[in-house]
Automatic annotation (TrEMBL):
<protein>
    <submittedName>
        <fullName>Enamine deaminase RidA, house cleaning of reactive enamine intermediates, YjgF/YER057c/UK114 family</fullName>
    </submittedName>
</protein>
<dbReference type="InterPro" id="IPR035959">
    <property type="entry name" value="RutC-like_sf"/>
</dbReference>
<dbReference type="InterPro" id="IPR006175">
    <property type="entry name" value="YjgF/YER057c/UK114"/>
</dbReference>
<dbReference type="Pfam" id="PF01042">
    <property type="entry name" value="Ribonuc_L-PSP"/>
</dbReference>
Amino acid sequence: MEKREISPWQWQDRLSYVQAVEVKNVQGTLYVSGQAAVHADGTSSNADMRTQLGLAIENLEKVISEAGYEPKNIVRLTIYSTSSDEFIESCFDLFQDFVAKHGMKQTVTLMQVVALFETLNIELEATVVK
């Protein structure tokens, strides 16, 4: 697989994403459903957004790993949040730690939504390649 990141500017670097990712000679593509703060028994977390983001990241990493892929090869990540302001103010550093931990170079869209399932307030949807 060949990956090429495209970012005509540098300002997005401090926000932990790139403007575009070109992928060639892919062996597989994994489309991951939105992963949220759902415990192994299927119950939704009612914790604060930061705690929920931590669990959502763990769940995303588990699905990717179980499929035989690696988080470093996430090329597209959509973040659904019930409050963009709260995500940026109280969770952005945790998101950046996740990106740095895996050396990711991915596109990102942050979307504020009215509600998510049950008590959830953050969800991560990804496209991963190998």
